[in-house]
Design goal:
The protein has one domain: lithium bound rotor ring of v- atpase (Four Helix Bundle (Hemerythrin (Met), subunit A)). The protein contains 4 helices and no strands.
Length: about 100
């Protein structure tokens, strides 16, 4: 439970940092202030929500993986492979964030 709370807190902090950095950067263009706000919030959500999803997935995979490795040492390779797979979700979040940023 504590890990979930900490991961959610870090994800919220990450979203707030991205939004504040996006507001601090000077943007040129014809978008209105509300459109820029929506763009920045979307960028923050793209990273924050993927971070939360990855954290929840890895916590469950890690707990099961430790149990599997404790029973059979030969499971180390498959467990590491399964543990890394949710990280692709965060990479997709970064891609979406950059796609939103360049528009």
């Amino acid at each position: 439970m504590f890990r979930k709370v900490v991961s959610i807190i870090f994800a919220i902090i990450g979203m707030l940092i991205f939004i504040s950095l996006a507001f601090a950067a000077e943007q040129t263009g014809t978008l209105g202030d509300m459109a820029k706000l929506g763009k920045y919030i979307g960028m923050g959500l793209a990273i924050g929500l993927t971070g939360i999803g990855t954290g929840l997935a890895q916590s469950r995979i890690g707990a099961a993986g430790v149990g599997a490795i404790a029973e059979d040492r030969s499971m180390f390779g498959p467990v590491i492979t399964l543990f890394v797979i949710p990280e692709t979700i965060v990479i997709f979040g970064f891609v979406v964030m950059f796609l939103i940023m360049i528009q």
